[in-house]
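DM from R.C. (forwarded with permission)

"hey, sorry to bug you on a friday — could you get me a structure for this? deadline for the figure draft is monday and I only need the backbone to look sensible"
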Amino acid sequence: MMPSSFAKVWGCIAAPGHRFILAGVVLILLGVMGGWPWITGLGVVSGGFFAYFFRDPERDIPLGPGVIVSPADGLVIRVDEVQENEFLKTSARRVAIFMNVFDVHVNRSPVAAVVKEMRHRPGEYKVASRADAASRNEQQALMLENEAGRRVLVVQIAGLLARRIIPWVKPGQPLARGERLGLICFGS
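My reply, with the result:
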């Protein structure tokens, strides 16, 4: 059976955003029923903003051996060599991606791998593009290992506005390249 247009659209929005969008719909209904155009407008603007923020579009994931995909939409703000002592315990190449409020905030696995370890670290909520955000902000680290034994560390870092990290995976779970692994969104 073919899903309805509503189900197709609703399914393209990350589940944590549904309640925010429904709040916008409630404002629209209250505004229309009460004859309050500014409440209706607030509902349209807020519902539209949250639908856009929590969108979760399908992606065409490239195939081929050795392909690594970006775990996040956004702007690459730093590529450098770092000494990673907590998980990898070796030097590693870090690619830092800053997601602004207009980027898709659903994160994906960069490689086909198994989630070996997850660790949440509380912290601050500074602007995520700052160099010290990686060491000071709240974060969720996911250690992935592919079938060849190569390890990839994905660290989701909260920021000033997107302060809540919601993991959708657990240790031992196999992931396909490009599979959704979590969301960074509003909340605490």
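R.C.: lifesaver. The chain has a mean pLDDT of 91.
me: no worries. The two ends are 39 Å apart (CA to CA).
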